[in-house]
Amino acid sequence: MTFRMRGHRAAFVSALLASAVVMSSQPVAAEGADRFAGARSVERMRSENPGRSYYDPRAERAPQGYRHQRRERRGGGLFGWGGWGSQSKDYDYDRYDPEPVKAHVSSPKYYTYKPDELKTVSLDALSRAVAEAALKRQQEAAEAEAARRDAQARAATTEQSPERAGDVRLTGSIAASGDSPNDQTTATDRAVPETGSGAANNTGSANATNATAADPTAADSTSADPATTTAADAQSVPAGSGADAAAPAAADDATALNDATPETAVNPADPTPFERDAEMLAGLKLRALPEVIDAVEAYYTKKPAFVWVEDGKVSDKARAAMKVLAAAGTVGLDPADYAVEMPRDTVAMGNSDVEVASNDAANDGVVNDASTALSAPGLGVRERERDLMRFEMEMSAAALTYALDAQRGRVDADRISGYHDLPRHDVDLDVTMASLAASDDVTAYLEARNPSSKEFKELVAALAMLKMQSEEAPVTIAANTLIKPGQSDPEMANVVKAIERKASEDLKTDHADTFDTYDGGQTYTPELVSLVKDYQREAGLSADGVVGPNTVRTMVGMTLDSKVEKVKLAMERLRWLPRDLGERRVFINQPAFTATYVQQGRDPLSMRVVVGKKSNQTNFFYDHIKTVEFNPYWGVPYSIIVNEMIPKLNNNPYYLDESGYEVTTVNGRQVSSASVDWRAVAAKKQSINVRQLPGHSNALGELKILFPNKHHIYMHDTPAKSLFQRANRAFSHGCVRLQDPKAMAAAVLGKDKTYVSERIAQGKNDADTVAGNIPVYVSYFTAWPDAKTGKVQYFPDVYDRDMYLSRAIEATRKARHG
Hints:
The protein has five domains: 1-28 and 53-98, no CATH class; 124-260, no CATH class; 283-464, no CATH class; 472-558, PGBD-like superfamily/PGBD (Muramoyl-pentapeptide Carboxypeptidase, domain 1); 579-814, L,D-transpeptidase catalytic domain-like (Beta Barrel), CATH 2.40.440.10. It contains 29 helices and 25 strands. The strands form seven sheets. Strands 9, 10, 11, 12, 13, 18, 19, 20, 21, 22 and 23 form an eleven-stranded mixed beta sheet that branches. Strands 14-17-15-16 form a four-stranded antiparallel beta sheet. It has a two-stranded antiparallel sheet with strand order 1-2. Keywords: Cell shape, Cell wall biogenesis/degradation, Peptidoglycan synthesis, Signal, Transferase.
């Protein structure tokens, strides 16, 4: 039987069937829309940027940690009880790995500082080395002198006239000619005079091999060298050799030689005063840095001569050097590190020594002479000599230590934390010691070991002024004070008093009328707003005129002592940087949240910056600017991938695809973020590259300025402009965001901002190479001179690095003094 439906019934059933299909398919469609939300983002990005390629997540395999699962959905149907449309089939993703990827890249750490250790060495070895070197030099000089005289004797014999040469023959010590044997022997002996303890051997050698001349004038010509013959030579002829006959001539020769020889002539074989006293080194000990001890021993071994002792007393050079060491505090160093005890019988009086004779000295037969160092009561001559030798050694060690500290600092920055990347300067102490010995102006030489930059000199001047000031009772301002222009507040009087106490002399002069006319009122008048704004600028704050927590903190939280400490720490940090900062440079000061381009002949270009937050601190290092990149990609650092992106990928495997990032393998193949084994990436078993595409939403904005370094830090633009209005601008992952990146790029490129804007407008990812050698200092100074005025400003210790540096200096002090 064939059942026929009327038209209206067929239409009714068709409608019911269509309704059932729609009802049963809606959940799947909605779920698919959520699952493929990244596809819509890709389509939108494709339409906006037709020239780029983007991956459609639907074309990829199942995400890591998921699998394709056939899922049946029941329900719906014609009346919700099955039948037509009661089953719906679709492929979906089911998680089969319930544990999300958990990983974290740790930030650098602060260390327990380990200072340079001093060592104590005995100077016995130096004493032996000096003595051996002196003996060797004397022996070499004696041998050279004997050889030279032998050569002279042979030359004189060869130059005889042909007539006389026939009478010359070898006959031992007696000539066979008709001349007197005594005359002949005397001439030969005088040709080879006595040299030290080997005179007899030398004479015997000459007698065994002499060429005897018959003419007595040959003897005169042989001994006529005034530089090698003395009266002692003439008197050294053995008895029975005819000396009586030759004595008058020898005496005449000696007289002539004495007249021709300068009184200041010194035999190079003679021991120096230091060598004569070298035995005094035995038993002495020297405590200093290992490299200092090595330099001291090397110098005195090679050149055994006093540097700080002259005529048996402390020299003027030593006194001048000691004044520099005693004034080390003026340049941020500790004078106790370079203190040397004067010899015990020496009393400072002008530029001379006052020597006190003792009973021991009198008993020893020593005459009290003002020009000669004598001994103090109870101090014998040998003890005096030993004390002078001790002073000589300690003075050299102290001067070298000062030179070392002045040039590289007392603290090794890289031992403070992993955030410091400042290789310690190499100081050639061998050259320094030689220069100290040779210098005619030891004061200038030692002072010149300190940094020579304008900024260091301004810090020195600021420290001197601070030490002249006296600490006053602090001004207190109520907690949570907040005063805006036009408001009234009872703390207004304390605010004005605090500014008058803390402000520079220039600011006080500029607002002298405001201070003079202020009557203690509570109203925040326009004149007081102007005063507060100038104070805020001087303090490195945002000059908004609002008296809030940051402004109050600078008014009441920084004492005179804290300013002195900040300046000293700044001097120490400046010694970590190159001596010559460069005529063109970019100086970023993290506590000040500023970056300044400096070039001779033009005004400094300064701007605000955003630096790393405390959990992602910006490193302290320096490098050189290489390129400016326009419309940059952002290559995401590994730490950000692991710490921030993987947690989001746990919730949405397509997060990077949907957010406009490119994910590529090590061979450059582009993949979907859903296809990556992020667990392997976190474990560093798989390498992957993630970068954000150029555009207005790019984290680097329109440009970046590169100075390649291992920390992946650079300067760049940012879309988050509002952060520059904040006083504390520590918000980045470590890079330096610039308030005016176009101006900075134009400065380092030597162009104008129009050129930079045109390069950006081209829309291409491109780069310009920076010409010249422009260093960039990513530094950390809580006290630093203003680039324009030179006035030292003080800043908060954003990362607590002042505390860690102070601890390191204290550890160094304990290591040096116990």
